[in-house]
Design brief:
The structure is a homodimer. The first copy, chain A, has two domains: 160 residues, Rossmann fold; 111 residues, 3-Layer(aba) Sandwich (Rossmann fold). Chain A contains eleven helices and ten strands. At the A-B interface, helix 2, helix 7 and helix 8 of A face helix 2, helix 7 and helix 8 of B.
Protein backbone atom coordinates (compact mmCIF):
# COMPACT_ATOMS: atom_id res chain seq x y z
CA UNK A 1 0.00 0.00 0.00
CA UNK A 2 1.49 3.35 -0.94
CA UNK A 3 1.70 5.86 1.89
CA UNK A 4 1.17 9.52 1.12
CA UNK A 5 0.44 12.71 2.95
CA UNK A 6 -1.02 15.99 1.77
CA UNK A 7 2.34 17.57 1.02
CA UNK A 8 3.14 14.70 -1.31
CA UNK A 9 -0.15 14.83 -3.22
CA UNK A 10 0.36 15.87 -6.81
CA UNK A 11 -2.22 17.86 -8.70
CA UNK A 12 -1.68 15.74 -11.82
CA UNK A 13 -2.26 12.45 -10.00
CA UNK A 14 -5.52 10.69 -10.86
CA UNK A 15 -8.68 10.51 -8.75
CA UNK A 16 -9.82 7.01 -7.75
CA UNK A 17 -13.56 6.41 -8.05
CA UNK A 18 -15.24 3.16 -7.13
CA UNK A 19 -18.65 1.55 -6.98
CA UNK A 20 -20.14 -1.93 -6.77
CA UNK A 21 -20.71 -1.78 -10.53
CA UNK A 22 -22.02 0.71 -13.06
CA UNK A 23 -24.02 3.05 -10.78
CA UNK A 24 -20.95 5.06 -9.79
CA UNK A 25 -20.61 6.14 -13.40
CA UNK A 26 -23.25 8.80 -12.69
CA UNK A 27 -20.75 10.23 -10.18
CA UNK A 28 -17.80 9.86 -12.57
CA UNK A 29 -19.90 11.67 -15.19
CA UNK A 30 -20.45 14.62 -12.85
CA UNK A 31 -16.74 14.78 -12.03
CA UNK A 32 -15.94 14.80 -15.76
CA UNK A 33 -18.41 17.66 -16.28
CA UNK A 34 -17.44 19.81 -13.30
CA UNK A 35 -13.65 19.32 -13.25
CA UNK A 36 -12.76 18.29 -16.79
CA UNK A 37 -8.98 18.43 -16.28
CA UNK A 38 -8.91 15.56 -13.81
CA UNK A 39 -7.75 12.02 -14.58
CA UNK A 40 -9.97 9.25 -13.23
CA UNK A 41 -9.27 5.63 -12.37
CA UNK A 42 -12.71 4.00 -12.09
CA UNK A 43 -13.26 0.59 -10.53
CA UNK A 44 -16.60 -1.28 -10.67
CA UNK A 45 -16.86 -4.46 -8.59
CA UNK A 46 -18.95 -6.28 -11.19
CA UNK A 47 -17.95 -9.74 -9.92
CA UNK A 48 -19.61 -9.08 -6.57
CA UNK A 49 -22.31 -6.55 -7.49
CA UNK A 50 -24.78 -5.66 -5.97
CA UNK A 51 -23.69 -4.36 -2.55
CA UNK A 52 -27.09 -3.03 -1.48
CA UNK A 53 -28.40 -6.33 -0.15
CA UNK A 54 -25.23 -7.29 1.70
CA UNK A 55 -23.80 -6.77 5.19
CA UNK A 56 -21.50 -4.17 6.72
CA UNK A 57 -18.64 -6.66 7.22
CA UNK A 58 -18.74 -7.91 3.67
CA UNK A 59 -19.00 -4.45 2.12
CA UNK A 60 -16.18 -3.14 4.29
CA UNK A 61 -13.93 -6.05 3.30
CA UNK A 62 -14.71 -5.53 -0.40
CA UNK A 63 -14.15 -1.76 -0.14
CA UNK A 64 -10.75 -2.18 1.52
CA UNK A 65 -9.59 -4.43 -1.31
CA UNK A 66 -10.69 -1.84 -3.84
CA UNK A 67 -8.95 1.01 -2.02
CA UNK A 68 -5.73 -1.04 -2.02
CA UNK A 69 -6.14 -1.58 -5.77
CA UNK A 70 -6.74 2.14 -6.43
CA UNK A 71 -3.70 3.09 -4.36
CA UNK A 72 -1.46 1.20 -6.77
CA UNK A 73 -2.15 4.13 -9.15
CA UNK A 74 -1.00 6.65 -6.53
CA UNK A 75 -4.33 8.41 -6.66
CA UNK A 76 -4.49 11.80 -4.93
CA UNK A 77 -7.97 11.18 -3.56
CA UNK A 78 -10.66 8.51 -3.57
CA UNK A 79 -14.39 9.00 -4.20
CA UNK A 80 -16.62 6.25 -2.83
CA UNK A 81 -19.24 6.54 -5.60
CA UNK A 82 -21.59 4.05 -3.96
CA UNK A 83 -24.08 4.97 -1.27
CA UNK A 84 -23.96 1.54 0.38
CA UNK A 85 -20.15 1.53 0.64
CA UNK A 86 -20.22 5.17 1.83
CA UNK A 87 -22.77 4.21 4.48
CA UNK A 88 -20.98 1.14 5.79
CA UNK A 89 -17.29 1.45 5.03
CA UNK A 90 -16.28 5.14 4.78
CA UNK A 91 -15.30 5.61 8.44
CA UNK A 92 -13.08 2.56 8.43
CA UNK A 93 -11.50 3.46 5.09
CA UNK A 94 -10.71 6.95 6.40
CA UNK A 95 -8.77 5.42 9.28
CA UNK A 96 -6.78 3.17 6.92
CA UNK A 97 -5.45 5.66 4.39
CA UNK A 98 -3.91 9.09 4.57
CA UNK A 99 -5.20 10.58 1.36
CA UNK A 100 -8.54 12.41 1.33
CA UNK A 101 -11.57 10.20 0.76
CA UNK A 102 -15.09 11.43 -0.05
CA UNK A 103 -18.33 9.50 0.06
CA UNK A 104 -21.60 10.40 -1.67
CA UNK A 105 -23.77 10.45 1.46
CA UNK A 106 -22.52 13.57 3.27
CA UNK A 107 -22.77 15.91 0.24
CA UNK A 108 -26.31 14.70 -0.49
CA UNK A 109 -27.35 15.02 3.15
CA UNK A 110 -25.97 18.56 3.35
CA UNK A 111 -27.89 19.76 0.29
CA UNK A 112 -31.13 18.12 1.41
CA UNK A 113 -30.91 19.76 4.82
CA UNK A 114 -30.51 23.13 3.10
CA UNK A 115 -33.27 22.88 0.50
CA UNK A 116 -36.12 21.48 2.61
CA UNK A 117 -38.64 24.09 3.71
CA UNK A 118 -41.23 21.92 5.44
CA UNK A 119 -38.63 19.79 7.26
CA UNK A 120 -39.72 16.48 5.72
CA UNK A 121 -37.04 14.71 3.71
CA UNK A 122 -37.38 11.37 1.97
CA UNK A 123 -34.48 9.06 1.14
CA UNK A 124 -34.72 6.24 -1.38
CA UNK A 125 -31.81 3.78 -1.48
CA UNK A 126 -30.76 0.14 -1.15
CA UNK A 127 -31.79 -1.97 1.82
CA UNK A 128 -28.28 -1.65 3.27
CA UNK A 129 -28.15 2.16 3.00
CA UNK A 130 -31.62 2.57 4.50
CA UNK A 131 -30.82 0.04 7.25
CA UNK A 132 -27.67 1.96 8.17
CA UNK A 133 -29.72 5.15 8.88
CA UNK A 134 -26.68 7.07 7.67
CA UNK A 135 -28.65 9.85 5.93
CA UNK A 136 -30.70 10.40 9.07
CA UNK A 137 -27.52 10.65 11.16
CA UNK A 138 -25.80 13.19 8.88
CA UNK A 139 -28.91 15.32 8.30
CA UNK A 140 -29.74 15.44 12.02
CA UNK A 141 -26.20 16.65 12.75
CA UNK A 142 -26.88 19.61 10.44
CA UNK A 143 -30.49 20.29 11.30
CA UNK A 144 -32.22 18.75 14.29
CA UNK A 145 -35.65 19.98 13.27
CA UNK A 146 -36.16 17.84 10.19
CA UNK A 147 -37.70 14.41 9.92
CA UNK A 148 -36.20 11.84 7.54
CA UNK A 149 -38.22 9.04 5.96
CA UNK A 150 -36.23 6.18 4.41
CA UNK A 151 -37.55 3.74 1.83
CA UNK A 152 -35.58 0.79 0.43
CA UNK A 153 -36.18 0.23 -3.30
CA UNK A 154 -34.45 -3.07 -4.14
CA UNK A 155 -36.01 -3.47 -7.61
CA UNK A 156 -34.83 -0.14 -9.02
CA UNK A 157 -31.25 -1.31 -9.74
CA UNK A 158 -32.25 -4.48 -11.64
CA UNK A 159 -34.88 -2.52 -13.60
CA UNK A 160 -32.35 0.18 -14.49
CA UNK A 161 -29.69 -2.38 -15.45
CA UNK A 162 -32.29 -4.10 -17.67
CA UNK A 163 -32.66 -0.76 -19.47
CA UNK A 164 -36.26 -0.06 -18.38
CA UNK A 165 -35.53 3.62 -17.63
CA UNK A 166 -38.85 4.71 -19.14
CA UNK A 167 -41.29 1.84 -18.83
CA UNK A 168 -44.75 1.17 -17.36
CA UNK A 169 -43.27 -1.54 -15.11
CA UNK A 170 -40.73 0.88 -13.63
CA UNK A 171 -43.57 3.39 -13.21
CA UNK A 172 -45.68 0.85 -11.33
CA UNK A 173 -42.84 -0.22 -9.03
CA UNK A 174 -41.89 3.42 -8.43
CA UNK A 175 -45.49 4.31 -7.52
CA UNK A 176 -45.54 1.50 -4.95
CA UNK A 177 -42.22 2.48 -3.40
CA UNK A 178 -42.96 6.22 -3.38
CA UNK A 179 -46.61 6.20 -2.29
CA UNK A 180 -45.86 6.42 1.43
CA UNK A 181 -43.39 9.26 0.85
CA UNK A 182 -46.07 11.15 -1.09
CA UNK A 183 -48.61 10.47 1.68
CA UNK A 184 -46.40 12.01 4.36
CA UNK A 185 -45.85 15.12 2.26
CA UNK A 186 -42.06 15.26 1.92
CA UNK A 187 -40.74 18.27 -0.01
CA UNK A 188 -37.25 16.86 -0.69
CA UNK A 189 -36.22 13.45 -2.00
CA UNK A 190 -32.62 12.22 -1.91
CA UNK A 191 -31.71 9.79 -4.71
CA UNK A 192 -29.64 7.69 -2.31
CA UNK A 193 -28.27 5.18 -4.81
CA UNK A 194 -26.02 6.12 -7.71
CA UNK A 195 -28.25 4.25 -10.17
CA UNK A 196 -31.31 6.36 -9.46
CA UNK A 197 -30.41 9.54 -11.39
CA UNK A 198 -30.92 7.38 -14.49
CA UNK A 199 -34.68 7.22 -13.71
CA UNK A 200 -34.81 10.78 -12.46
CA UNK A 201 -37.57 11.78 -14.89
CA UNK A 202 -39.83 8.91 -13.75
CA UNK A 203 -39.22 9.74 -10.09
CA UNK A 204 -39.80 13.46 -10.68
CA UNK A 205 -43.07 12.86 -12.52
CA UNK A 206 -44.44 10.60 -9.76
CA UNK A 207 -43.35 12.85 -6.89
CA UNK A 208 -44.65 16.01 -8.60
CA UNK A 209 -43.26 19.52 -9.00
CA UNK A 210 -43.46 20.42 -5.33
CA UNK A 211 -40.74 17.91 -4.40
CA UNK A 212 -37.05 18.75 -4.97
CA UNK A 213 -34.93 15.80 -6.06
CA UNK A 214 -31.40 15.82 -4.63
CA UNK A 215 -28.77 14.01 -6.70
CA UNK A 216 -25.75 13.27 -4.48
CA UNK A 217 -23.62 12.63 -7.59
CA UNK A 218 -23.81 16.32 -8.48
CA UNK A 219 -23.17 17.46 -4.90
CA UNK A 220 -20.25 15.06 -4.50
CA UNK A 221 -18.48 16.35 -7.60
CA UNK A 222 -18.96 19.91 -6.32
CA UNK A 223 -17.53 19.03 -2.90
CA UNK A 224 -14.64 17.17 -4.55
CA UNK A 225 -13.78 20.25 -6.58
CA UNK A 226 -13.84 22.47 -3.46
CA UNK A 227 -11.65 20.04 -1.55
CA UNK A 228 -9.07 19.83 -4.35
CA UNK A 229 -9.01 23.63 -4.60
CA UNK A 230 -8.54 24.03 -0.85
CA UNK A 231 -5.63 21.59 -0.84
CA UNK A 232 -4.14 23.19 -3.97
CA UNK A 233 -4.24 19.96 -5.95
CA UNK A 234 -6.85 20.71 -8.59
CA UNK A 235 -5.34 19.79 -11.93
CA UNK A 236 -4.77 23.05 -13.79
CA UNK A 237 -3.98 21.61 -17.19
CA UNK A 238 -5.96 19.19 -19.30
CA UNK A 239 -3.93 15.98 -19.69
CA UNK A 240 -4.49 16.14 -23.45
CA UNK A 241 -5.83 13.64 -25.90
CA UNK A 242 -4.23 10.23 -25.87
CA UNK A 243 -3.18 10.65 -22.25
CA UNK A 244 -5.50 7.90 -21.00
CA UNK A 245 -7.42 10.45 -18.96
CA UNK A 246 -10.15 8.00 -17.96
CA UNK A 247 -9.29 4.40 -17.15
CA UNK A 248 -11.89 1.79 -16.25
CA UNK A 249 -11.35 -1.44 -14.36
CA UNK A 250 -13.88 -4.07 -13.32
CA UNK A 251 -13.74 -7.39 -11.50
CA UNK A 252 -15.80 -9.13 -14.19
CA UNK A 253 -17.36 -8.71 -17.63
CA UNK A 254 -15.37 -5.81 -19.09
CA UNK A 255 -17.23 -5.87 -22.43
CA UNK A 256 -20.67 -5.75 -20.84
CA UNK A 257 -19.53 -2.95 -18.54
CA UNK A 258 -18.17 -0.98 -21.46
CA UNK A 259 -21.42 -1.23 -23.33
CA UNK A 260 -23.52 -0.04 -20.35
CA UNK A 261 -20.97 2.64 -19.49
CA UNK A 262 -21.14 4.07 -22.98
CA UNK A 263 -24.88 4.58 -22.54
CA UNK A 264 -24.22 6.76 -19.47
CA UNK A 265 -20.99 8.60 -20.26
CA UNK A 266 -20.78 10.37 -23.58
CA UNK A 267 -17.01 10.84 -23.50
CA UNK A 268 -16.32 7.40 -24.96
CA UNK A 269 -15.09 4.56 -22.79
CA UNK A 270 -12.12 3.44 -24.83
CA UNK A 271 -11.54 0.27 -22.85
CA UNK A 272 -12.23 -1.49 -19.59
CA UNK A 273 -9.93 -4.11 -18.05
CA UNK A 274 -10.85 -7.02 -15.82
CA UNK A 275 -8.73 -7.63 -12.70
CA UNK A 276 -9.04 -10.14 -9.83
CA UNK A 277 -9.97 -7.88 -6.93
CA UNK A 278 -9.74 -10.72 -4.37
CA UNK A 279 -5.96 -10.58 -4.77
CA UNK A 280 -5.80 -7.10 -3.20
CA UNK B 1 -8.64 -30.77 0.07
CA UNK B 2 -9.73 -34.21 1.17
CA UNK B 3 -9.09 -36.97 -1.33
CA UNK B 4 -11.62 -39.80 -1.60
CA UNK B 5 -12.53 -42.51 -4.03
CA UNK B 6 -15.72 -44.49 -4.45
CA UNK B 7 -14.62 -47.33 -2.16
CA UNK B 8 -14.09 -44.81 0.62
CA UNK B 9 -17.45 -43.06 0.22
CA UNK B 10 -19.66 -43.64 3.22
CA UNK B 11 -23.43 -43.86 2.94
CA UNK B 12 -23.87 -41.78 6.10
CA UNK B 13 -21.68 -38.92 4.83
CA UNK B 14 -23.54 -35.73 3.93
CA UNK B 15 -24.36 -34.45 0.46
CA UNK B 16 -22.92 -31.03 -0.43
CA UNK B 17 -25.32 -28.71 -2.24
CA UNK B 18 -24.42 -25.24 -3.43
CA UNK B 19 -25.87 -22.27 -5.24
CA UNK B 20 -25.13 -18.59 -5.71
CA UNK B 21 -27.76 -17.86 -3.03
CA UNK B 22 -31.25 -19.01 -2.15
CA UNK B 23 -32.35 -20.48 -5.51
CA UNK B 24 -30.67 -23.82 -4.88
CA UNK B 25 -33.03 -24.34 -1.95
CA UNK B 26 -35.63 -25.54 -4.48
CA UNK B 27 -33.16 -28.34 -5.29
CA UNK B 28 -32.39 -29.02 -1.63
CA UNK B 29 -36.15 -29.20 -1.00
CA UNK B 30 -36.56 -31.89 -3.69
CA UNK B 31 -33.65 -33.89 -2.23
CA UNK B 32 -35.27 -33.69 1.22
CA UNK B 33 -38.56 -34.95 -0.26
CA UNK B 34 -37.20 -37.71 -2.44
CA UNK B 35 -34.39 -39.08 -0.23
CA UNK B 36 -35.34 -38.04 3.29
CA UNK B 37 -32.58 -40.00 5.03
CA UNK B 38 -29.79 -37.90 3.56
CA UNK B 39 -27.80 -35.26 5.41
CA UNK B 40 -27.21 -32.02 3.52
CA UNK B 41 -24.56 -29.34 3.81
CA UNK B 42 -25.94 -26.36 1.88
CA UNK B 43 -23.85 -23.38 0.85
CA UNK B 44 -25.31 -20.18 -0.64
CA UNK B 45 -22.80 -17.61 -1.95
CA UNK B 46 -24.86 -14.64 -0.78
CA UNK B 47 -21.83 -12.30 -0.66
CA UNK B 48 -21.33 -12.61 -4.41
CA UNK B 49 -24.85 -13.41 -5.64
CA UNK B 50 -26.05 -13.29 -8.42
CA UNK B 51 -23.94 -15.47 -10.74
CA UNK B 52 -26.26 -15.22 -13.76
CA UNK B 53 -24.85 -11.94 -15.05
CA UNK B 54 -21.19 -12.89 -14.56
CA UNK B 55 -18.46 -14.56 -16.62
CA UNK B 56 -17.25 -18.14 -16.95
CA UNK B 57 -13.88 -17.40 -15.30
CA UNK B 58 -15.41 -15.69 -12.30
CA UNK B 59 -18.08 -18.34 -11.77
CA UNK B 60 -15.54 -21.14 -12.10
CA UNK B 61 -13.25 -19.50 -9.54
CA UNK B 62 -16.13 -18.98 -7.11
CA UNK B 63 -17.37 -22.57 -7.61
CA UNK B 64 -13.94 -24.06 -6.92
CA UNK B 65 -13.72 -22.19 -3.62
CA UNK B 66 -17.14 -23.54 -2.63
CA UNK B 67 -16.24 -27.12 -3.55
CA UNK B 68 -13.12 -26.84 -1.37
CA UNK B 69 -15.30 -25.58 1.50
CA UNK B 70 -17.83 -28.44 1.08
CA UNK B 71 -15.03 -31.01 1.01
CA UNK B 72 -14.03 -30.03 4.54
CA UNK B 73 -17.22 -31.88 5.58
CA UNK B 74 -16.11 -35.04 3.72
CA UNK B 75 -19.26 -34.98 1.62
CA UNK B 76 -19.93 -38.13 -0.43
CA UNK B 77 -21.20 -36.18 -3.41
CA UNK B 78 -21.78 -32.60 -4.52
CA UNK B 79 -24.86 -31.17 -6.23
CA UNK B 80 -24.30 -27.96 -8.17
CA UNK B 81 -27.77 -26.55 -7.49
CA UNK B 82 -27.27 -23.54 -9.77
CA UNK B 83 -27.81 -23.61 -13.51
CA UNK B 84 -25.20 -20.95 -14.20
CA UNK B 85 -22.49 -22.76 -12.22
CA UNK B 86 -23.54 -26.07 -13.81
CA UNK B 87 -23.31 -24.48 -17.24
CA UNK B 88 -19.91 -22.85 -16.77
CA UNK B 89 -17.99 -24.73 -14.08
CA UNK B 90 -19.17 -28.37 -13.90
CA UNK B 91 -16.63 -29.82 -16.34
CA UNK B 92 -13.72 -28.20 -14.57
CA UNK B 93 -15.01 -29.18 -11.13
CA UNK B 94 -15.33 -32.81 -12.29
CA UNK B 95 -11.66 -32.81 -13.23
CA UNK B 96 -10.63 -31.42 -9.84
CA UNK B 97 -12.35 -33.82 -7.44
CA UNK B 98 -12.81 -37.56 -7.26
CA UNK B 99 -16.24 -37.73 -5.67
CA UNK B 100 -19.35 -37.75 -7.87
CA UNK B 101 -20.68 -34.32 -8.80
CA UNK B 102 -24.07 -33.63 -10.37
CA UNK B 103 -25.31 -30.44 -12.01
CA UNK B 104 -28.90 -29.41 -12.64
CA UNK B 105 -28.60 -28.95 -16.40
CA UNK B 106 -28.18 -32.54 -17.66
CA UNK B 107 -31.17 -33.98 -15.76
CA UNK B 108 -33.43 -31.16 -16.99
CA UNK B 109 -32.16 -31.52 -20.56
CA UNK B 110 -32.78 -35.28 -20.50
CA UNK B 111 -36.37 -34.95 -19.33
CA UNK B 112 -37.16 -32.18 -21.82
CA UNK B 113 -35.80 -34.23 -24.71
CA UNK B 114 -38.10 -37.08 -23.63
CA UNK B 115 -41.34 -35.15 -23.09
CA UNK B 116 -41.40 -32.97 -26.19
CA UNK B 117 -43.67 -34.25 -28.94
CA UNK B 118 -43.40 -31.40 -31.46
CA UNK B 119 -39.62 -31.04 -31.10
CA UNK B 120 -39.71 -27.42 -29.93
CA UNK B 121 -38.24 -26.82 -26.50
CA UNK B 122 -37.90 -23.46 -24.74
CA UNK B 123 -35.34 -22.69 -22.04
CA UNK B 124 -35.64 -19.72 -19.71
CA UNK B 125 -32.60 -18.94 -17.58
CA UNK B 126 -30.02 -16.30 -16.65
CA UNK B 127 -28.01 -14.45 -19.29
CA UNK B 128 -24.96 -16.60 -18.49
CA UNK B 129 -26.81 -19.93 -18.82
CA UNK B 130 -28.47 -18.92 -22.07
CA UNK B 131 -25.18 -17.51 -23.39
CA UNK B 132 -23.42 -20.81 -22.66
CA UNK B 133 -25.87 -22.73 -24.92
CA UNK B 134 -25.42 -25.65 -22.52
CA UNK B 135 -29.02 -26.86 -22.68
CA UNK B 136 -28.86 -26.89 -26.48
CA UNK B 137 -25.64 -28.91 -26.37
CA UNK B 138 -26.99 -31.57 -23.97
CA UNK B 139 -30.39 -31.87 -25.63
CA UNK B 140 -28.88 -32.18 -29.11
CA UNK B 141 -26.65 -35.00 -27.85
CA UNK B 142 -29.79 -36.89 -26.86
CA UNK B 143 -32.05 -35.92 -29.73
CA UNK B 144 -30.78 -34.24 -32.88
CA UNK B 145 -34.24 -33.56 -34.24
CA UNK B 146 -35.37 -30.96 -31.70
CA UNK B 147 -34.98 -27.21 -31.82
CA UNK B 148 -34.14 -25.32 -28.63
CA UNK B 149 -35.10 -21.67 -28.06
CA UNK B 150 -33.32 -19.90 -25.21
CA UNK B 151 -34.54 -16.73 -23.51
CA UNK B 152 -32.64 -14.88 -20.78
CA UNK B 153 -34.94 -13.51 -18.04
CA UNK B 154 -32.73 -11.33 -15.85
CA UNK B 155 -35.58 -9.70 -13.90
CA UNK B 156 -37.14 -12.92 -12.61
CA UNK B 157 -34.59 -13.45 -9.81
CA UNK B 158 -34.90 -9.93 -8.32
CA UNK B 159 -38.72 -10.09 -8.56
CA UNK B 160 -38.77 -13.48 -6.83
CA UNK B 161 -36.35 -12.35 -4.14
CA UNK B 162 -38.56 -9.30 -3.57
CA UNK B 163 -41.41 -11.75 -2.86
CA UNK B 164 -43.52 -10.85 -5.92
CA UNK B 165 -44.31 -14.49 -6.71
CA UNK B 166 -47.92 -13.66 -7.55
CA UNK B 167 -48.08 -10.09 -8.75
CA UNK B 168 -49.23 -8.13 -11.79
CA UNK B 169 -45.69 -6.81 -12.33
CA UNK B 170 -44.24 -10.32 -12.45
CA UNK B 171 -47.10 -11.26 -14.81
CA UNK B 172 -46.26 -8.37 -17.12
CA UNK B 173 -42.53 -9.11 -17.18
CA UNK B 174 -43.22 -12.83 -17.70
CA UNK B 175 -45.54 -12.05 -20.62
CA UNK B 176 -42.80 -10.00 -22.26
CA UNK B 177 -40.12 -12.64 -21.77
CA UNK B 178 -42.34 -15.56 -22.82
CA UNK B 179 -44.16 -14.01 -25.80
CA UNK B 180 -41.62 -15.12 -28.39
CA UNK B 181 -41.61 -18.67 -26.97
CA UNK B 182 -45.41 -18.76 -27.26
CA UNK B 183 -45.22 -17.42 -30.82
CA UNK B 184 -42.91 -20.22 -31.94
CA UNK B 185 -45.20 -22.84 -30.45
CA UNK B 186 -42.90 -24.68 -28.02
CA UNK B 187 -44.53 -27.61 -26.20
CA UNK B 188 -41.90 -27.92 -23.43
CA UNK B 189 -40.37 -25.20 -21.23
CA UNK B 190 -37.31 -25.82 -19.06
CA UNK B 191 -37.18 -23.69 -15.91
CA UNK B 192 -33.44 -23.22 -16.29
CA UNK B 193 -32.77 -21.26 -13.09
CA UNK B 194 -33.36 -22.68 -9.63
CA UNK B 195 -35.42 -19.63 -8.63
CA UNK B 196 -38.05 -20.15 -11.31
CA UNK B 197 -40.03 -23.03 -9.74
CA UNK B 198 -41.17 -20.41 -7.19
CA UNK B 199 -43.17 -18.66 -9.94
CA UNK B 200 -44.20 -21.89 -11.62
CA UNK B 201 -47.91 -21.11 -11.40
CA UNK B 202 -47.45 -17.73 -13.15
CA UNK B 203 -45.31 -19.30 -15.87
CA UNK B 204 -47.78 -22.19 -16.33
CA UNK B 205 -50.75 -19.84 -16.61
CA UNK B 206 -49.05 -17.68 -19.24
CA UNK B 207 -47.72 -20.60 -21.30
CA UNK B 208 -51.04 -22.47 -21.18
CA UNK B 209 -51.96 -26.11 -20.62
CA UNK B 210 -50.40 -27.36 -23.84
CA UNK B 211 -46.87 -26.61 -22.61
CA UNK B 212 -45.10 -28.96 -20.19
CA UNK B 213 -42.92 -27.21 -17.62
CA UNK B 214 -39.74 -29.11 -16.76
CA UNK B 215 -38.31 -28.44 -13.31
CA UNK B 216 -34.65 -29.54 -13.23
CA UNK B 217 -34.71 -29.50 -9.41
CA UNK B 218 -37.07 -32.46 -9.40
CA UNK B 219 -35.13 -34.34 -12.09
CA UNK B 220 -31.81 -33.66 -10.36
CA UNK B 221 -33.01 -35.13 -7.04
CA UNK B 222 -34.23 -38.20 -8.92
CA UNK B 223 -30.91 -38.64 -10.71
CA UNK B 224 -29.04 -38.12 -7.44
CA UNK B 225 -31.07 -40.89 -5.81
CA UNK B 226 -30.35 -43.28 -8.70
CA UNK B 227 -26.63 -42.51 -8.60
CA UNK B 228 -26.42 -43.07 -4.81
CA UNK B 229 -28.29 -46.38 -5.20
CA UNK B 230 -26.01 -47.53 -8.00
CA UNK B 231 -22.92 -46.76 -5.94
CA UNK B 232 -24.44 -48.38 -2.84
CA UNK B 233 -24.15 -45.20 -0.78
CA UNK B 234 -27.79 -44.20 -0.30
CA UNK B 235 -28.29 -43.57 3.40
CA UNK B 236 -30.48 -46.41 4.70
CA UNK B 237 -31.25 -44.95 8.11
CA UNK B 238 -32.67 -41.60 9.06
CA UNK B 239 -30.03 -39.71 11.04
CA UNK B 240 -32.61 -38.98 13.72
CA UNK B 241 -33.78 -35.78 15.31
CA UNK B 242 -31.12 -33.55 16.77
CA UNK B 243 -28.50 -35.00 14.41
CA UNK B 244 -28.07 -31.75 12.53
CA UNK B 245 -29.36 -33.37 9.36
CA UNK B 246 -29.48 -30.11 7.42
CA UNK B 247 -26.76 -27.49 7.85
CA UNK B 248 -26.78 -24.16 6.05
CA UNK B 249 -23.83 -21.90 5.36
CA UNK B 250 -23.69 -18.60 3.51
CA UNK B 251 -21.01 -16.07 2.65
CA UNK B 252 -23.14 -13.15 3.91
CA UNK B 253 -26.36 -12.25 5.71
CA UNK B 254 -27.21 -15.47 7.54
CA UNK B 255 -30.34 -14.02 9.17
CA UNK B 256 -31.81 -12.78 5.91
CA UNK B 257 -31.01 -16.10 4.25
CA UNK B 258 -32.71 -18.01 7.07
CA UNK B 259 -35.85 -15.97 6.73
CA UNK B 260 -36.10 -16.50 2.95
CA UNK B 261 -35.15 -20.17 3.27
CA UNK B 262 -37.92 -20.77 5.75
CA UNK B 263 -40.43 -19.53 3.17
CA UNK B 264 -39.24 -22.23 0.75
CA UNK B 265 -38.37 -25.21 2.92
CA UNK B 266 -40.96 -26.32 5.40
CA UNK B 267 -38.58 -28.51 7.44
CA UNK B 268 -37.39 -25.61 9.58
CA UNK B 269 -34.00 -24.06 9.00
CA UNK B 270 -32.63 -24.15 12.51
CA UNK B 271 -29.64 -21.97 11.78
CA UNK B 272 -27.39 -20.61 9.07
CA UNK B 273 -23.76 -19.66 9.58
CA UNK B 274 -21.73 -17.05 7.73
CA UNK B 275 -18.23 -18.00 6.53
CA UNK B 276 -15.63 -16.12 4.47
CA UNK B 277 -15.62 -18.13 1.23
CA UNK B 278 -12.69 -16.16 -0.21
CA UNK B 279 -10.44 -18.00 2.26
CA UNK B 280 -11.04 -21.35 0.52
Amino acid sequence: MSQQNDSKLHSDAPIGVFDSGVGGLTVAREIMRQIPNEKIIYFGDTARVPYGSKSRDTITRFSKQIVRFLQTFEVKTIVVACNTASAYALDELEREIDIPIIGVVKPGAKTASEVTTNGRIGVIATEATIGSQIYTKYIKELNKDVTIYGKACPLFCPLIEEGLWQDPVTDEIARRYLSELIDIDIDTLILGCTHYPLIRSTLGRIMGDSVTLVNPAYETARELKEMLEEKGILNQEHPGLGANQYQFFVSDGAEKFKSFANSIIKYGILSAKTINIEEY
